[in-house]
Structures are given as structure tokens and as C-alpha cells.
């Protein structure tokens, strides 16, 4: 069915093919819009990426002892937060729990700049903490142990993680005088 002059297919056949292509593209678009998105595994199920921060004592025996004693799960506002694998390269002496906004512990940090003789400290289960409020989170620094440790919790978390971590710290690291 070629045009006798040029060898090209007849015009009606070209028009029909173009119309079919347009209809096919429109059908795919409508199907994609009406079908909805497939549920995607949230990134929170994979390894937890943590930004490296200076932690000069993260390789200390105190941090190794603390990290080894931390539980596999924490309870926060009635929810169980499971310990997560950290994405490589993982900062040394760091642990994360939960999906979405995780609870993160880092051991071996430098003295928090907010710590001074007039800082308001809270004692939780025999451990002294300095709270530093962030945007949507609070970071609690352990200030009375041989190594500074930070526990960052989302504002939606209850007090469970702080209490559990306080118990582990009190049982594994001796109290020391505050260092300003």
C-alpha cells in the first residue's frame, strides 16, 4: 500500500498511526494519574545517614563501653524504636533508633559551648544533662561523665529515651565533676 509516486505509505495510514500514538500517550498519562503512586519503601527503613561531627574521644574505652551497653530498642511515647544500622561512612560511637525523625546518640564529643557555671542542668536518673533546644528537636548533653555524650530527640518523643539512656550511662560511666 505504498504511494506510487514516492514509495511512502498512504496519507490516511500516516494519519491513523499518528492518532494511535497520541491516544496511546494520552492513555498512559491518564493511567498514571488515576492509578496512584506505588507505595515506596521509605528511606527510613534503610541505613540511617549521620553527618560526621567532631568527636575526638569517640574511640575512647568509655565510649566503647557505653555504645556496647545501649539497648536494641527504646520506648518513646508508647512506641518501640528499634536500633538502626548507620549508613557508611558511619561516625564512630554513634547510634540511632527509630524511623522518620530518629533518636540519635553520639559519644565522645567536645564540651558543648552552652555549658557554663550558670547553665540550667537537669538530673535524670543520677545523670546530669544540659538541654539545647533545636528546630523540631532537642539535644541533651551528658555533662558529668568522663566523655561528653549527646542524645538528640525529636520534639514528638517522650521522656522514655532520655530515661533509658540515663540508666545505661549511670550504670556504665562514673560521675565526674563538671568541667567548665
TrEMBL record:
Pfam families: DUF3515. It comes from the Bacteria. InterPro entries: DUF3515 (IPR021903). This is DUF3515 domain-containing protein. The lineage of its organism: Bacteria, Bacillati, Actinomycetota, Actinomycetes, Pseudonocardiales.
